[in-house]
Fold these 2 entries.
Entry 1:
Amino acid sequence: METQGRPVDDVLAELDLARGKDPDPHGAHLFGLTYPTGDAEIERLCHAVHDRMLYSNALNPFRFPEQSRLSEEVVRAVAGLVHLPREGGGTTTSGGTESILMAVLVARQRARARGVERPVVVAPASAHPAYAKAAHFLDLDYRQAPLDPTTLAVDVGALRGLVDERTALVVASAFSYPHGVMDDVAAVAALAAEHGAGCHVDACVGGMVLPFLDGELPAWDFGVPGVTSMSVDLHKYGFVPKGCSVVLHALPDWAGHQWFVYDQWPAGLYGSPAVAGAKSAAPVLAAWAVMQHLGLDGYRRVVAGMVEAAGRIREGFESVDGVVVNGSPVGTVMSWRSERPELSLFAAADLLEQRGWFLNRLTGTGGGEPGLHVMVSPAHEHVIDQLVPDFVDCCEDAVRAGVQSDDAGRYA
Ligand SMILES: Cc1ncc(COP(=O)(O)O)c(C=O)c1O
């Protein structure tokens, strides 16, 4: 910081200059990290809520009971979509990682209560790094279960060998980040229940997509016996700015394990349900507002549009000789490998980046093969007619140039 301050417009100009060098989240040329809706009304609503709630604090529900009531409506709305039992409950958090941290905490406390000294989290190799992070933060052991090489869902037979009396939590994704495929939630939850462990369904990505899909799906929500917790992110396919997820628990003892309450200091009772203390109410109230605006029909319409767009992208990419989709992705996330030795998809991705398209890369570590990955957002519908020809061109150019790329996958 300089000694002398600067005029506001001067500061904003510098911010805009810096922003202009990064990819534009509205441009629909990114396929993850941001979820552009391309819908001016949703954006107007999110801006307006953030404007109104800019200086809010969601720490104290007694001081701001209305904020707290609307936040509870968000939890209840998500709970309804995923059939949370009446005796269950949950809270909002700042994102998927915090929801997962809370689910692992609750599972650890339950395991300790039944006498397990060093509890274990068992997760598919495709599970998001947030589980390994939670195990690291909360001092649990972490075991990774391999994927079935064809479906890329967790190999339930191999999982069976990893779950035992020390297991606090077994994870299933609905659907997974790397491949967009469903784990067999019913089998995973039954296995967890056999050993007295919890089963967490990671619906951080799928939770606001799966309830609105047409057609048959394998059972994946709280209707499945043995599912004890779930994370659903609203700052992904709930279409609100970052800072909003919901963690849900089926069993009524969750609050006692998740809430932190303390009064051994001079300033009175402090209570908080998750990691953060003071935090903005804006992201959660934006979620409330978008839910009011879209309604169930709106979400159904938006999800149908994304699934249609994902299908067109898939068809376009697979028109390239040797490009093959991984597993059977069910919704808006999918990935491809190259079965043609002379086609490096990383090399094609490098060329696509020169044209301003940022596809995600898979390394193949832990299952599957190296390849490319997309998370489709509503705004992508409007760029498919540019994306697909560019993809086809860049694959051809990569083959012609005989390029091999060294640039491995980076998630974040
Ligand atoms: C399946 C899955 N779970 C959890 C997370 C973590 O969510 P966040 O980045 O909001 O903490 C992600 C993020 O992409 C994810 O894809």
Note: The chain has two domains: 25-35+296-401, 53-290.
Entry 2:
Amino acid sequence: MTRLPQITEVYLDNSATSPVFPEVLRLMEKVMQEEYGNPSSLHRRGSGAHRIMEGARQTLAGLLCVSSEEIIFTSGGTEANNLAVLGLARRHRRRGNHLITSLIEHPSVLEPFQQLENEGFHVTYLPPDERGLIDPETAAEAVTPETILASIMHINNEIGSLQPIHRLSRALKSRNPRLIFHVDAVQSFGKIPLLPGEAGVDALSLSAHKFHGPRGVGALYLRRGIKLEPLSRGGGQERGLRAGTENTPGVAGMALAARLCHEEQQQKTERLSFLKARFLAAVEQAHPQVKVNGPRNGKEAAPHILNLSFPGLKGELILHALEEAHVYISTASACHAHKKGPSHVLQALKLDQPHLEGAIRISLSLQNTLEQIDYAAAKLIRVVQELS
Ligand SMILES: Cc1ncc(COP(=O)(O)O)c(C=O)c1O
């Protein structure tokens, strides 16, 4: 038997959250200690903090090729999604009461849509195909003159399906040019480029902790001229669209993490795809019965997310057996882990019960080495053998 290298831990749950870059941590500490003023204060301490906020805004805007005033800082992906869905639908209600989303969105998108149904809106939930992809033609057919908003995620957090956002935007807007198109790019930002201007996206959500930034900070891009009803009111921060004293260290950390992820992004994405393919090849060779839930590779697949089912085995048992070997994965998304019942995403793929129960998610980052990937694959192969 080949000897495994000495490995103390393999973290393969990066879609739940990712470790903060050391440079980001250092910057945040410095900002917390030195630029502790409130950005709204008129004295020197306030203007220092304000400058940091505006520098970070420019960095993010530059990476998205948009203007600074189109970036609204939030407390994370959940708030950005809530603000976009609730804020846009409520603000534009006079133009129509029809909304479109998909069945496989993150709960921070789906639950606001359910709330809007309670408020009298009519929502169409688009079904994915068996790989988790939304067909632009089907999306276009759902559009009516009453449709004011569509929200479709870029990369699905559970199965890694990567939606054809450019084609979806064209298809939706060809039927109704005034429709506002929001994209949850929480899982793709820093890995797969998506420029709102080029892609026909009017609003786009980000979350720092998915790309090695801090937790509790995110952003919403909102195209200039599009009006939105705020969810929080108070001190008028973020042009009155998101009241609350700004998280200056978090925002600074997010901008630095974003910049670092975008350096040589293409090579990094290729590296992630390579690691993912290597892991899958090893597992498939040992256990040909494994099923890949979602696209396996190619331009429809996220480079870092792999969802696998081992029919007859429970995903949770695999997770805990791997934990014993210090390999950390998940069964579905982190937000599902404490909910009863199978994931809504896997159900939308129409998986049968054994595949639903046997699903695990592996999500990689560039901090994973080749040795770690080989180690984790070997451990998974052994765990599946032992549990079968
Ligand atoms: C696709 C997607 N959208 C939104 C969120 C929520 O982001 P946050 O954890 O910053 O609230 C997540 C987090 O798991 C996600 O994966």
Note: The mean pLDDT is 95.
